[in-house]
Specification:
The protein contains 5 helices and 4 strands, in the order αββαααββα. It is α/β, with parallel strands linked by helices and 199 residues long. It has one domain (2-11, 24-171). It has a 4-stranded mixed sheet with strand order 1-4-3-2, with helices on one face. A hairpin with a 7-residue loop joins β3 (141-144) and β4 (152-155). The two termini are 52 Å apart.
Amino acid sequence: MIGAIGVVMAAGGAIADIKRKNQAPVVAIVDFQQVTRESKAGASIRRQVNEQHAIYQEEIKRLQDELKIERQYLQGIQTEQSPEDFKRRSEGYRRKAENLQKLLKERKRQLDQMYVNGMREIESELARILEAIANEREIDIILNTTRGQGVVIFAKPQTLISEEAKTRLDKRLPNISLPVPSIAHKTGEIPQLPGKAKE
């Protein structure tokens, strides 16, 4: 999720303070995941998701109990019903069982979406806080130590070299000529691949 935030640009201009012009950039690090996880808002999200999960669990258990009773009923009347009547009753039970499985998946999706939406809000706010801290403390770059997530959380414009790198790349390597694969001489003929014997 942090990858979606990307690099937060500083609101100030691109020209660095003259006193710091020849100094090395000031770098800070933060464990983005730890901050969001241990924050009050993060705890609030987990509590709300757990509460909703408990509500869904009660709903699912009630429906499962109803299906269990209906299955036992069907088993008890199987010998008393004609094949046609029993098949009709069994199809009704089967539809309910299938609907329950769909409901389970939907409830799981809803819980996951609740968590994702909440965490996205926390991360967006944290990114703004980190930008403010960087400006207050004259930090040029903030790196994220959380494994598997985006590395750079904040970078002042003067530390970003993507445009310059692209300009130099365009100058040094403006074009690449790709070799064209060989084609069959006759229309509709399948070309023989290297190393593959004809049958």
